[in-house]
């Protein structure tokens, strides 16, 4: 698991360290790690000696890190040039170090560079990138290096132009191949469009960890977390003790939603699936192991319900929604079930003891919350989670899971291959199975999103992806993830 901290918390930890360390120590640690990573990139691209390195240097400490790293590369024989955004306000010690190592400043972007270090602005950024910086950033993609290859762009701490605490990209911003960050990850590395701008993110340890007192803003699961959480059958298990998931999705009009939900659940850990709804004949025909009934009221015992997609919004759909909410079981609400909540007719049904997970995409989020998630997706998801007292899985490129208690997870496995009709139905089915298998709601949501993303990637490797391909790939994804 990786974790990201907000700027204010990073600053607080930095202050604690600064009191204990001689002046400049942190910057030297940061610059040394940055230079090491840049040297490796240059070695891969033909060597450090003689390589052309361009430093984009802002007026703060981010520029200072960049100048010291540039000096280290110059000492190894690289031709290092620095373009200063504000020559009147530059980190003087950094500039002296660069000059002493043989580097020099330039007034405009050169024609050629093998490597660009973006040190325009780091965690001290406020607002969108300023015009003079934006003009330089716009021209970066034209820079060519050895053999006419595109220059490799390394962002120092964060790509300049991103909003560090929200992951928003309000305007022009650097698109990096690699981002070398210091001390800890920040939200922009893991959520929102900023995360995409970071490229590969590498963390340099500068000793901040032990003094980071605040809770992390966002956690990012890895395969080991998901494998550890995934429920497993044991020698004493039977189909009931493994959990039974109830699927109340789809309808005679939209049987596909039911089939996809069931196929997602089939890849989960439960021993049995009960389907309740008007697509029951289609479901049992396609999946003979599923026990089907026409209505939730007729279903036997389950340990969690999935309700919503393809259900429609008529009276029958309302009855289905009421029936699942009347239980004290964990419930996943998706798609039409979320639409049914908007007019407030289910306010009483929502006052229940059982855990609730809602899985909106942006449109559903807007209907529920009254406004789109906007530029601060984490903040928006947290607000809705608290308001609805539900775990919110906000779908997107970096799907976010937020809890009413203030925990946030960002899924790292998403792929645009998942942006296909019915993909969310597969996700909801898998999530329901994990809940019925006994996982806590936030873990079930995080694990489902993680495996769903990997399955999308796996399916995409074989060609264009439709939702049934994601469901089919889930089986192998789960095997690889959990080793079973
Ligand atoms: N935290 C840590 O533990 C460590 C932090 N370290 C490093 O320090 C960095 C933070 O340095 P920082 O505080 O000096 O701020 P920084 O990011 O350089 O930006 C401030 C300057 O940018 C400017 N500027 C602002 N907004 C702008 C915009 N939109 N567009 C354009 N320009 C803009 C603004 O200019 P001004 O408004 O003053 O004209 C101001 O002068 C951090 O990211 C990391 O690299 C490491 O050395 C060691 C450990
Ligand atoms: N551009 C994207 N990149 C990565 N994942 C995406 C993207 N667009 C959508 N997704 C994912 O695809 C799924 C789509 O779900 P949803 O919108 O509910 O589809 P449907 O209602 O058709 O089943 C979600 O898991 C979402 O996170």
Automatic annotation (TrEMBL):
The positions annotated for binding AMP are 395-399, 424
Sorted alphabetically, the keyword list is: ATP-binding, Isomerase, Lyase, Metal-binding, Multifunctional enzyme, NAD, NADP, Nucleotide-binding, Potassium
CC cofactor note = Binds 1 potassium ion per subunit.
Q: Which residues bind K(+)?
A: 62, 118, 160
Cite the binding residues for (6S)-NADPHX: 61-65, 122-128, 157, 257, 310, 361, 425
Catalyzed chemical reaction(s): (6R)-NADHX = (6S)-NADHX; (6R)-NADPHX = (6S)-NADPHX; (6S)-NADHX + ADP = AMP + phosphate + NADH + H(+); (6S)-NADPHX + ADP = AMP + phosphate + NADPH + H(+)
An example of a Pfam family matching this protein is: YjeF_N
What is the protein's name according to its record? Bifunctional NAD(P)H-hydrate repair enzyme
Q: Which organism is it from?
A: Paractinoplanes bogorensis
Q: What is the lineage of its organism?
A: Bacteria, Bacillati, Actinomycetota, Actinomycetes, Micromonosporales
What gene makes this protein?
nnrD
